[in-house]
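Question (not urgent): is this output format expected?
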Amino acid sequence: MAGKRKTNPAGSTNSHRGDVLRVLGVLKVATADQIQRICAPHLTFRHADKETPSKQKQARTASHTGALSDMRGHGLSENGGSTETGDCLRNLTPKGLEAAAYELRRPAGEMGSTARGAGSSGASHPMAVNGTVIAMLRPKPNLAKLADDPPHVQAAAQAAIDTQDGIGTIASYGTEVALPATGTWNAPGKGGAQADLVLTAPQDGVPLLFIEVDNCHETAEELAAKLEIRPLLPPPREGHRR
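Got this back:
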């Protein structure tokens, strides 16, 4: 036990560190609150009786905050600024992305960037993307993990379980995915588009879905221009130049 504590002084478990890798491997930048809501939604109900919202958040995110602290010590994650509401943003290092690739069973070459610097201006767009993922996932609490909690806590959790199911798991999503007009998927050329979100959840009847997340900084015309389909030019005939 002493050896484990020395390796992970914040006392985090493999499970919670795995949660962090899976979420940050997909979202690239997120808060401890978002990680908890996706991976351990039962904790939201367990700590609903705390005196203030701040204390509720501190209690329900404590396990994942500890995991982030230990992972930072191992060089897997780092603090990346803060949101507009003051929540600390976290992202993976290159070493952390390699570990996340293993957790998500994805090729390391498809993991994208580390999102360093995303929090320098509040990360409003990544937070909107993350909110979209959470809204589509609709994470349901595990009632078995609340078996020893008071009846009113179990009733609140059951009400959440009884709502409409979400789509896919966190591993079903990808963010900032290049859609290359030239080049390759792993080395896209200039001029291609980029999807804010790509969802692949055939088990839920969604084989492939591209999602554009807008945070109201662009006009409708600018958004429409992103979706404009340009016809491919036919190859030039022999003896002619374009």
